[in-house]
Write a structure and sequence with these properties.
16 helices; 78% helix; mainly alpha; 403 residues; single chain
Length: 403
């Protein structure tokens, strides 16, 4: 009898440890297909709908803006509904966006679907770091690594498979709408998550970070860290097709970037997990991106896959590490969740501007080289800011009472 009890306890322990991680991973996988699926099919979409490059950039810009605006309102809006209700509502919005895309046929309706999907993405994404901090308070780097890797995997798989699905059904709408499947699976997993991790009240708290300099620094850093990703998913397929790549091959190029994003998102946080000072790994993640973007400027034709792989590795590591550094500033999960909501809010507004500016620069100059140079400049600025993230100064920098 005691052996049976021990076996039952072991199974329960494994379930409590790994099932929530699976839920986190699938939630994360819903957060990018709405955005990344359009890039490899942009030529077909533009031919069919007649939208221009600046209008097409809204397919990325609008979801990014939603990701920025909702987290800023979350401490107040969050009081209306429970955490679970917000996440379920967000997943329904993502699913609705994909469902609508199965039969829409105009540029305006496609942009509207991006807005609906963006609202859902913003809701789920704003909740996720707080959920991670609460479910895995002693394994934050690992859990954030899994979250980040799954998020990037979802985006990469969508970029690779959307052209394949579109070609099979002879319809770009099918290539976009197929991603209805992912939020439906996420809804099921969230509904059946273990009772040990359930919470009836929303975990966010209303704290005014708008007057906190460190919060603004973290938010700006996060925004610039994601600017390269936003520009790559918006314009890399178009750039590759201008170099002679097909729609499917350009989608696979995003896939290559994603593979290395996942490696960076999982590997670098794991390597940095034993020490609170993460600056050396942030330096590595930024420098490898600078080299990659410099390669796109100097030798785009011969080593394109290498440069994309280097950029992907740096982007993946940066995303995970930047959120981890924000969580490191506060030990209380509710406070840390509120800080990361602010960081993502301001950060994604900054991120959303990047692909739109890139589209304007591309139309003005007729080349993407100026876009890659712009991103190199932002990365150099990030190198300088990274020196300020010494763990010994976290408490003084964030300067909140009772933390």
């Amino acid at each position: 009898m005691s052996i049976d009890n021990a076996s039952c306890d072991t199974r329960q322990s494994v379930l409590t440890l790994y099932w929530p991680m699976l839920v986190i991973a699938v939630l994360a996988m819903t957060l990018r297909p709405t955005i990344t699926a359009t890039g490899p099919l942009l030529a077909e979409i533009r031919l069919s709908t007649g939208i221009g490059l600046q209008a097409a950039s809204l397919l990325v810009v609008l979801p990014m803006l939603c990701m920025g605006i909702f987290p800023l309102l979350l401490p107040w809006l969050g009081k209306w509904l429970s955490e679970s209700a917000w996440i379920i509502g967000g997943l329904f919005a993502i699913a609705l966006s994909s469902l609508w895309r199965l039969w829409l046929s105009t540029g305006s309706t496609l942009i509207a679907s991006a807005l609906i999907g963006g609202i859902g993405i913003a809701v789920v994404q704003a909740m996720a770091p707080g959920v991670v901090k609460r479910w895995y308070p002693r394994r934050v780097p690992l859990a954030m690594g899994v979250y980040s890797a799954a998020l990037m995997t979802g985006g990469g798989v969508a970029a690779i498979l959307s052209p394949v699905v579109a070609q099979h059904y002879d319809s770009w709408q099918s290539g976009l709408g197929i991603w209805l499947v992912v939020p439906v699976i996420a809804l099921l997993l969230w509904w059946f998550r273990p009772s040990e991790v359930m919470e009836t009240k929303h975990s966010s708290v209303a704290i005014n970070f708008f007057t906190n300099q460190r919060a603004w620094l973290l938010a700006s850093y996060f925004g610039l860290a994601n600017a390269g990703y936003a520009c790559m998913i918006a314009w890399l397929p178009t750039y590759a097709r201008a170099l002679g790549w097909s729609a499917q091959d350009s989608g696979e190029l995003i896939g290559i970037m994603t593979v290395f994003q996942v490696l960076g998102a999982l590997g670098i946080p794991a390597l940095s997990g034993n020490r609170l000072d993460r600056r050396s790994w942030l330096f590595f993640a930024i420098i490898i991106q600078i080299v990659g973007f410099a390669g796109l400027v100097l030798m785009p034709m011969s080593l394109l896959m290498l440069w994309v792989a280097m950029i992907g590795c740096g982007l993946g590591a940066c995303f995970s590490l930047t959120l981890t550094v924000a969580l490191d500033h506060l030990s209380v999960p509710k406070l840390a969740g509120a800080l990361t909501a602010f960081v993502q809010g301001i950060g994604f507004i900054i991120t959303a501007i990047a692909p739109y500016i890139a589209g304007i620069l591309r139309e003005w100059t007729g080349s993407f080289q100026i876009v890659w140079l712009m991103l190199i400049v932002t990365l150099v600025g990030m190198l300088l800011v990274t020196t300020k993230f010494a763990p010994t100064g976290y408490a003084k920098a964030i300067n909140l009472p009772n933390t």
